[in-house]
Fold this protein.
Amino acid sequence: MIKLGDYNTLRITRFTDHGAYLDGGHVGEILMPKAYVRREMRPGDEVRVFIYLDQSERLVGTTEQPLTRVGRFAFLRVAWVNEFGAFLDWGLMKDLFVPFREQKMRMMQDRSYIVHVHVDEETNRIVASAKVEQWLRPARSADYYRGREVEVLVQQKTPLGFKVIVDNAHQGLVYDDQIFGMPPRTGDLLHGTVVSLRPDGKLDISLDRIGKSRFRDFADVLLDELRAAGGELPFSDDSTPEEIAGRFAVSKKTFKRALGTLYRERKITFGEGSIKLPIRKNVK
């Protein structure tokens, strides 16, 4: 079966002045335009191509890599708008269409939006929708437990924090008090950790690791920072959460736990408002 709007590995059947024709099985031959044909290609070779529809709604294959594919959410820029809808730049010669009915508000040229890419059941065309909530489903407790690492796409800022799309399937939220350092931006693709699963199937997410392992990890980072700074940093237990987040992008709790770990292991000492690497005495 040909996967429209996705990658397919197909066999070259023949070459013409227009390019290479690929064996599409029950859909017949599929043209890979001449621009994507390499000199070393021969009939019988298999090539990995992205299959989509050209301007005449014919199946074509390309070795170009689009910014997204069918079944995925993405943050894409509007290339142009006409009386039928908006057209998004997704890295291919033919732009991706968003009908007006699939827009939350009228899209504007050169602005970027979070969209879901799918095949329209009525027209069999690849289209996008900015009404992304209809494509999200509740997460299950069997799959999402506290501490599981996930991929998140930042969707938008809210009064509580940032709405995110988790693992390309579920709705989540990163609360403001879980963000340390620079806040994320719409369209950022980040790694996160599940904090909890709510009864409605939505996920609370942290952009930091949770559990004891995060303290050990940051302790190693802090040691590296001390070495890079020449053995001393102007931070202590009395440093403010804002100072710590601005320098290390972690919470004060994580910072203090790391300090305690390193101090017990005799890897740091404390100065007047600073932390230091211990002075090693030369043994003769």
About this structure: The chain has a mean pLDDT of 90. The longest strand covers residues 6-16.
